[in-house]
Design a protein that fits this description.
This protein has eleven helices and ten strands. The protein has 269 residues and is α/β, with parallel strands linked by helices. It has three domains: 109 residues, Tetrapyrrole methylase, N-terminal domain (Cobalt-precorrin-4 Transmethylase, domain 1); 102 residues, Tetrapyrrole methylase, C-terminal domain (Methyltransferase, Cobalt-precorrin-4 Transmethylase, Domain 2); 44 residues. Strands 3-2-4-1-5 form a five-stranded parallel sheet, with helices on both faces. It has a five-stranded mixed sheet with strand order 6-7-10-8-9. A hairpin with a 7-residue loop joins strand 8 and strand 9. Helix 3 runs parallel beside helix 4 and helix 10 packs across helix 11. The chain is elongated.
Length: 269
């Protein structure tokens, strides 16, 4: 018999409705009510498994106002489950505010293991080593995307993106890091699940007619990080209007590099 908690964080399927644990179904049946991102979406899941538990909306627009309600119900001895539309709550979904308040108030909180797009994606693509950096949804603006992929050129950078924006994102990545390798997953666990790995240019060409479904993507860490960092420094100086020879002198002086080698690198870009 498992321990009883006041508040349960319950993962739900990211696509295939059968990807839910037996324990998750038990908890959703046993709690007094379910806090969900979209009651209509959650109700479809509950109807499929004949679960009659009451749903209460809880999303990023009403997080604060729901806190007092949750605390009142818990003090009355009620138990609550938190779900998102798909996957594990708190991973790019609402929940941080209420979890913080519940812990401060002394209530017990637990999270069930289950579906998550990040781990599902990473478990089926080739990687060297276990380290990766997950940033949630990648920023929208071109400048923010550029800064992000430059900052993490030495990391396996994992992010979510929408089908409407992903090609724009890949074009920015290609511009900033021409030789970056990409892995892209869409429609994970669904009928048209697809994983593609290659250079940004190859991924863009493959999906040039458009792409559908939720997107998880990883930009592989550059294998020769020193070369990448030098390229980024060169690009930064050239963007400020420095000429090739001036750039070579500045970088060789500041970073104790061979001026001729730096100059040849500039010419090759």
């Amino acid at each position: 018999m498992s321990r009883k908690f006041d508040f349960y964080v319950v993962p739900t399927p990211i696509g295939n409705i059968r990807d839910i644990t037996l324990r998750a179904l038990e908890i959703l049946k046993e709690v007094d009510f379910i806090a969900c991102e979209d009651t209509r979406t959650t109700q479809k899941l509950l109807n499929h498994y004949d679960i009659k538990t009451k749903c209460v909306s809880y999303h990023k627009y009403n997080e604060r106002e729901r806190v007092d309600f949750f605390l009142k119900e818990l003090r009355a001895g009620k138990s609550i489950a938190l779900v998102s539309d798909a996957g594990t709550p708190m991973i790019c979904d609402p929940g941080g505010v209420i979890i913080d308040e519940l812990i401060k108030a002394g209530f017990t909180v637990t999270s069930l293991p289950g579906a998550c797009a990040v781990t599902t994606f990473l478990s089926q693509i080739p990687r060297n080593g276990e380290e990766f950096t997950f940033i949630g949804f990648i920023p929208r603006s071109e400048k923010q995307i550029e800064d992000m992929v430059k900052k993490h050129s030495g990391d396996n950078l994992v992010f979510y993106d929408s089908p409407e924006r992903i090609l724009k994102t890949l074009n920015v990545i290609q511009k900033v890091r021409k030789t970056a390798k990409i892995a892209l997953g869409r429609e994970l666990s669904k009928l048209f699940e697809e994983i593609k790995t290659g250079f940004a240019e190859e991924i863009i060409e493959y999906f040039k007619e458009g792409i559908k479904g939720e997107i998880v993507c990883m930009v592989y860490a550059d294998e020769n990080i020193e070369d990448t960092e030098l390229e980024l420094k060169i690009q930064a100086l050239k963007s400020k209007g420095f000429k090739d020879k001036e750039t070579a002198i500045i970088l060789s002086t500041l970073f104790n590099l061979n001026k001729n080698e730096v100059y040849q690198k500039i010419l090759s870009l």
